[in-house]
Amino acid sequence: MATRRTKLRTLLGAAVLPLALVSPAWGGPSAPDPVAEGPETLCAPAGVLQGPGGQRAQISLCAGSGTPTLAVSAPAGCRSAGSGALACLTSGSWTARRDGETVSSGTLPGSGEYPGPGVYDVTATVRVRSTPAGVDLTGTVHATLTLTAPKPQPTHRIEVDRTSLAPNSVTTLTYTVSRDSERGDGSARFGLIGEEASGMTVTTSDARCVNPLTGSYPASTRNAYALDCALTDLQPGRPSTVVVQVAVKDACSTVVSKLGYWMPQGQALFTGGMLAGPTVTCA
Questions:
Q1: 144-168 pLDDT, tens digit each
Q2: d(Cα 249, Cα 43) in Å, to the nearest integer?
Q3: pTM for this one?
Q4: In the chain, where do the E strands start and end?
Q5: pLDDT in tens, 94-124
Q6: In this structure, how many other beta carbons lie within 10 angstroms of the beta carbon of residue 149?
Q7: Which of the residues 3, 6, 80, 239 could staple to 134 if both were Cys, CB 3.0 to 4.6 A apart?
Q8: What 3-state class would DSSP assign to 196?
Q9: What is the DSSP annotation of 123-161?
């Protein structure tokens, strides 16, 4: 039976593709933003699961492209003996391969980084349950999806001047946050976080940054292992620098960095982007 593919066009605005830059994974000089192809979702039949009592689930795999993420879902049609079509709940995990190499993975439904256009072999381990109850099946399905949307151009960068920490030491880290696109504005929230149980502390004299509060009012306890910075003046050609001191005890801990920022269509609920910055390891 020939594979049937359906493209479902959406009206969601394109967001910004994250960067992870200790040595920049994406980089180069800033350039005018290209006109992006609109977001699309491509679906293909992926397999049929069958069970006792006439249980049956016909599953498709769908992947969205044209945004910073590769969004994968597994819609299904369910039936059991004596029933008509039933609504289905699907969950599980997925892996996408291109040219034999694993390029993204996640939970169902869920998203990973969009690697760009190409032919993707998507494999998913899926649990399908009907509502009302009657079908409960688990199995592995597979589909080949050809995605054509270009990889969106990055607009922000995070770089750090060191790649590692050492136990029982205090290390100064200098983070540089850059905005390379004219799209959006100069506001961003920059965050750092270590591992809670390690006893690590992250401090800075930068007035734009605070250790986050925990607990209910009037509690004043703050997370010593995390830092939250409000940046308001990011412009192309004008990066922001944040200098922090990381104190590590006997237990090692990595430090993860993130950046959240606005983009055009700011009144829309789902706008802006989240950038995964470099991870500083400990050895």
A1: 999 999 988 888 999 999 999 999 9
A2: 50
A3: 0.69
A4: 6-9, 40-50, 56-65, 69-73, 76-79, 87-98, 101-108, 110-113, 118-131, 136-147, 156-160, 164-165, 169-179, 188-193, 201-203, 209-210, 226-231, 240-248, 255-261, 273-282
A5: 999 999 999 999 999 999 888 999 999 999 9
A6: 19
A7: 80
A8: helix
A9: EEEEEEEEESSS-EEEEEEEEEEEE-PPPPPB-EEEEES
